[in-house]
Hints:
single chain, alpha/beta, seven-stranded parallel sheet, binds NADP nicotinamide-adenine-dinucleotide phosphate
Amino acid sequence: MKEFDISGKVALVTGGTRGLGRSISLQLARAGATVHAGYFNNETAAETFRKEVAEAGIRCLTFKANLMTSSGIQACHDQIASGRLDALVYNSATGVHKPLHDLTQRHLATVWQVNVGAFFDLAVKVLPLMQPGARIVAISSEGAHRAVDHYGAIGSSKGALEALCRQMAAEWAGRGIGVNVVAPGLLRTDTLAALPDSERRVQAEAAQSPLRRLVSLDEVARVVHFLCSAASDGIVGETIVVDGGKRVSSLSV
Length: 253
Ligand SMILES: NC(=O)c1ccc[n+]([C@@H]2O[C@H](COP(=O)([O-])OP(=O)(O)OC[C@H]3O[C@@H](n4cnc5c(N)ncnc54)[C@H](OP(=O)(O)O)[C@@H]3O)[C@@H](O)[C@H]2O)c1
């Protein structure tokens, strides 16, 4: 089915060498895309990723860029040497896990800069590289839709990210560019492991999900793949929730 085919496409995945971004980069590259996977400062993860890619024989190039700086945004643009970008996946994020009364404007400014401001700068920067049929997919989270413990800074940034994507989707549909959001449930990544109560969160998430487990990174990556393909042409400005049914269910059996 050619509508699902993304072979020969050029994709840029931010935060693309570890965690969910790694799974997205590998998914798109295994499907035949040339993937440019950006990272910020985790050299160890980037090196591991490079070895994995070399062993798999897929086309996945890594590059370092701090998206909080204009030179980092420029580096993303310049990385696309072919001058044509078919898919931008904005997966980078940062966070400060504190209750609102312990947050400062500085915390908010940093989180919002990486999670929303840099996405805006990058999307506008690479827009001239995108032809009709190109896609933008941003990664959000549950906190965009409801209050989550110690998640005020991140959740509010993700809410803004989704609103911005809806606006982009409407404004850029006329250019033939599709913009959508994927909002995963809790994922087993380094970020989760670093939280002091990570196992409690995993148990709670699994208990609230009809699947009785967390969704996997690959399950989320496959939805991103779909949104990067022509098969998703009719989906415009939507947020696709991939949380195993937690959002739509309150069943206890
Ligand atoms: N983990 C979860 O439970 C969960 C649940 C729902 C949604 N999400 C979302 O899924 C996405 C991936 O989450 P994750 O847990 O895999 O990873 P993460 O810890 O949130 O980090 C994502 C990536 O962002 C990059 N990054 C951070 N600051 C940056 C900057 N200034 N410039 C460029 N890149 C920067 C990091 O680069 P380095 O590798 O160099 O550090 C990292 O690869 C995020 O958008 C997150 O909000 C996560």
